[in-house]
Write a structure and sequence with these properties.
Layout lengths: L1 H15 L20 H5 L2 E6 L6 H12 L3 H14 L1 E7 L1 H13 L4 E5 L2
């Protein structure tokens, strides 16, 4: 039995050895743009834009889940999006704004962030 196991191990080891030629591509150059502390802490707006796909009740429910808004406030923002094409849902630090946008994208809503002026 051990001889059979050794044969199997030898066969398996032989199939794992693959020789790839070295790549001749250069490493990519990554340019890093660093934001200042003031830019990061500056208030950022989370904006939801109108789309013709989602139902008004769905958009209201998403605003309640993501931001914890009561139904009345969520409906107010939903109607603002519907009538004006966009609504500012939240303002604050950039990292939190990016998290909210990511969550809204998870619900398939079109959302962006922008600096407050």
């Amino acid at each position: 039995m051990s001889q059979l196991l050794r044969k199997h191990e030898a066969k398996f080891a032989a199939t794992l050895v693959i020789d790839f030629p070295r790549a001749t591509l250069e490493a990519p150059t990554i340019e890093k743009e660093e934001a200042t502390k003031q830019e990061i802490e500056m208030p950022w707006n989370v904006i939801v834009h109108n789309d013709p796909v989602n139902l008004m009740s769905y958009v209201t429910m998403v605003f309640q889940r993501v931001f914890g808004y009561p139904r009345e406030r969520a409906e107010k923002h939903m109607l603002e999006v519907h009538n004006n094409g966009r609504s500012i849902l939240w303002s604050g630090v950039r990292e939190r704004a990016e998290l909210y946008v990511q969550q809204l994208h998870g619900y398939l809503l079109l959302a962006t962030i922008e600096k407050t002026v």
